[in-house]
Amino acid sequence: MEVKIVENAKDIQCDALIINKFEGENTSMDLVNKYAPEDFTGKCGQVFSIHTRNEYPAKQIIAVGFGKRENIDNNIVRENIAKAIKKCSELKAKTVAISLDTDYNYGGPAVLGAEIGNYHFDKYKNKKEHKVNEIYLSNIDKELVERSVVVSDSMKLTRNLANEPAAYATPTKLAEIAQNIQGIETEIFNYAKVEEMGMGAYLAVAKGSVEPPKFIHMKYIPQNPKKRIAIIGKGLCFDSGGLDIKPANSMLNMKDDMSGAAAILGVMQAIGKIRPDVEVHGIIAACENMPSGSSYKPGDIVTAMNGKTIEVDNTDAEGRLTLADALCYACKLEVDEVIDIATLTGACVVALGNTVSGIMGNNEDFIRSIIETGKIVGEKFWQMPMYQEFRDNMNSDVADMKNTGTRYGGTSAAGMFLKEFVTDKVKWAHLDVAGTAFIDKPYKEFCKGATGVGVRTILKYLISQ
Ligand code: BES
Ligand code: MN
Ligand code: ZN
What we know:
Elements: E1 2-5, E2 14-22, H1 30-35, E3 47-51, E4 58-67, H2 74-90, E5 95-98, H3 107-117, E6 134-137, H4 142-163, H5 171-179, E7 185-189, H6 191-196, H7 200-206, E8 214-220, E9 228-239, H8 248-251, H9 259-274, E10 279-289, E11 301-303, E12 309-311, H10 319-332, E13 337-342, H11 346-352, E14 356-361, H12 364-377, E15 380-383, H13 388-392, E16 401-402, H14 410-419, E17 427-432, E18 438-439, E19 449-450, H15 455-463
Parallel strand pairs: 1-6, 2-4, 2-5, 5-6, 9-10, 9-13, 12-16, 13-17, 14-15
Antiparallel strand pairs: 3-4, 7-8, 8-10, 11-12, 14-17, 18-19
Helix pairs in contact: 2-3, 3-4, 4-9, 7-10, 9-15, 12-15
The structure holds ligand BES, manganese (II) ion and zinc ion.
Zinc ion binds at residues 236, 239, 257, 318-319.
């Protein structure tokens, strides 16, 4: 989508003009005020469209409800502009002007909403989805719009990768994409090097697949960084469950098990362009979890990079094994903070559904500030408990721990497992996006499929340091 900044968006000859309506107020267009039905009150998300019959430069006007004027914020603008853009698509509009009646600095969230709402993964379809391809805005902050384009490009990269079949988005492909991101340095470690580094937990998972694992380390290192932060994404390019194979229904969407990795690639792409004063390490232990003659087996005992031993209780609890070594590696970099993002537990989907992500960690203030950042950008996080009981369930008779506990409290158990691989000096937060990374019905500005969850929160957190 091309974004054009013009003198007055209302004067542009285009297929549709988007305006807003506040509750209890008239809109800026008489045509809408005159012909909209009474129940078009301006409540958030209401949409009314009307043909202009050549009375105006735009062929149609799309009015969208914004709620009460005093409640306007970025989330309201982004979500409702996304809604209006979807309406434009329905009406087959290609060129769209946006002119909002408000003092609010809406350019940034309007562009982001338009881009998110306009997204479809139709690469493999012969008949493409209708998309808006030009938007016009006026009276907006150019810099904020440019920033939104960077963020939405990142989200597109993330969503595309998570929507891609596993046959395309392999560990090798993720490594190649990482190496092509501008403005950052990337190092890739192959099987032999990973083995040499002692990542026995990660390799146990990887060895059952014919796809070679790739350990990806992306670096953005500015002159005098205010902080040093590592961000880690779970990169299971496909999770069949391994020998503890998943039933067909549960395996269906497991190409999305690298959504965390995809989010990290998206964030790093934006970091390379925005170039903040904070050092960022993007880390992905990419592999597949497959059943085969070379697979790891229940009962195997594996050793992570920090020397801790793990009895494999269930080969489907593989994400935490790959993250264990990635966390050890990140802590060795002696960064100040580590954030990991992972489609880690089905239990998190049961607990929080498809619109709220789980969060845990070892520092309350750090967790709190990520939750607050999420609120600002419109991503919801809910803290899950970390108690010793969850860890006790993972005691093993033959190793330092097992990789699973009981059936219950699975999200917290996974969190307690990961904690074993984080050194006390580093502040750590773990985001469980199993329910939010990939959705099976449209939600707010998102269509079915990958949402790019985490990109906005992590990016916002990094650049506000
Ligand atoms: N990738 C899955 C978690 C998942 C489930 C993500 C549903 C997205 C949607 C993870 O590797 C997994 O299989 N977890 C198991 C752990 C269990 C064996 C302890 C689970 O949650 O069932
Ligand atoms: Mn699994
Ligand atoms: Zn998994």
